[in-house]
Specification:
The protein has 141 residues and is an alpha+beta fold. The chain has 4 helices and 7 strands. It has helices at residues 22-39, 71-83, 101-109, 127-133; strands at 10-17, 48-49, 55-56, 64-69, 88-92, 118-126, 138-139. The radius of gyration is 16 Å and the shape is globular.
Length: 141
Amino acid sequence: MSTELLRFDTKIAVLLREDLEPWQRLNVTAFLVSGLGATLPEVVGEPYEDADGVAYLPMFRQPVLVFEGTKETLKAAHGRALSRALPRALFTADLFSTGNDHDNRTAVRAVPTAELDLVGLAVYGPRNAVDKVLKGARMHP
């Protein structure tokens, strides 16, 4: 079995607003990456199977890097992701008060892009482009 670390040409990154509660960080991260996996089949690996033949769902084929930053950092990263047309998912503060997918989409649709109260952003793309989007963010502790 090889333990060699692969260096991927692409990056999956999540940027969280630094003032989120721990449960919110986990919840937002899970929601954000689900959008990438559902839309971008190239980020998902093969299904798993244990030694007894029990099957498990596939997961991302590469690490998900989690970052944090201020509200301003998140807003700037969002603008850079849009300008580079990178695949992205967003989570706004309004979504903490909704309870289903329909209401989530309605809440986002009600707010102009420049006024979104972003608490999380997931981005996928070429490693150098994602790095530029994340300028000013720091790795999540």
